[in-house]
Structure of Divalent anion:Na+ symporter (DASS) family protein:
Amino acid sequence: MHQKEMELPTIPSIFLCVLAAVVIYFVALYLPVGHFSEAGKHAFAVFCVAAFLWISNIFPLAVTGIIVLFLLPMSGDIFSQDVYSYFGNSAIFFVLGAFILASPVMRSGLSKRFAITIIAKFGTGSKRLCMSIFVLASIMAFFISEHAVAAMLLPIVLEIVTAANVRKKSRFAFAAYMAMAWGAMIGGTATLLGGARAPLALGILQDTFANNAQFAHASHIGFIQWSIWVIPIVLIMLALASVCVLIAAHNTGANIQLARETLMAHKKQIGKITKREILTLIVVLFTILLWVCYGTAWGLDWIAFLGVIMAFSLRITNWKEVEKDVQWGIVLMYGSAIALSVALRNTGAAAEMVQIMMRLGIESPLVVLILLVVLAAILTEIMSNAASVAVLLPIGLALAVEYGIDPRVVTIAIATSAGLTFMLPVSTPAMALVVQSDHVKIHQAMAWGVGLKLAGIIVITLAMALYWPLLGAF
């Protein structure tokens, strides 16, 4: 059993995409819409190019980030040193520290031991086995990136499916793979550690209102505060997705005994817990405890770096491993997205884009929020979830000012909606990994994903209308 090789874009397709980007830039620059300043027109044109490149996915996110950094200073009204300064945003260093800490978790074998132990203990039938994968993926995604969770669990799921001796179109195989993907994606929205979009959204929020005294109280969201706002959404979506897993895993006829024998053999093979695993667990738990208790007072980035220093001091990781494991392209994407959002704000482009939208006659703040949630849900299926946040959040925060909405509400609503990706492989590596397997077809994932996507929009809307006002929103 093998994974399909990813097709690389051809040179003609890249050329056509670049040509389209150039056309989009000049059309947006000279389009007689709104009342943009000269600098605002340029920022708006760069925004249109970035959105197109993120949607087309012809270049990696980091390369599109470099293109944004190249284009922004070209007008002469936005200076290079100002653009590059946004790489100092605390959210970037927070996620960098989180990625570095995730490296020893994987390299030490701690994550694999945890996964195999849990699945072997609770997976006594096809439904229970799939549910143990689902619950495990969701819990792990609370603390490390959903991308890393999918990468760690995929080989284990593959061996379980292989050992179960099932056909390519097996319902059990489909349920096992989707349990991993759905669990990781939903669980990854519960905390700031689960994915790229949440720290990026936090960084855009902070930089947008950094010098705005009126919104100073709403320019920061703490580690535990973020989870309090989203945990009801996560729990409801986990419950709904678990029902889907149970239905998919019902009466599959898979040989679970063979699968369990494979798991038990793996459990015996990994042996006793090592000193490195124990120290890694201590450092990670200590860092998470500090994030929860002192994240707001000390800074999430400062605590992340404290954990990194401890990891290197205790010799549970080394720089060669970190270099291979950290997604360095994310740093480029983050910095460019934050720079673009600030450029849209400072040049007045974001405000003008909002004025254009307000001419549609929408008066209710809740309707505006629902529209943003729906747009985020759609965008995240055709581009990376972090990219959808980068495209939509600057406009959403400008709308928040105009409609008197708490910016934290807009930030969490867009980031959470962007994280619930159930249909296409473009949005997140978790979906890309399962769709590339021999057991999951895109049309199958989409058929199940449509219901979960609609449920996600409804659940977030109910949270905005009923739960978030209790937390001081609106």
In short: The two ends are 53 Å apart (CA to CA). DSSP finds 22 helices and no strands in the chain. Residues 1-7 have pLDDT under 50 and may be disordered.
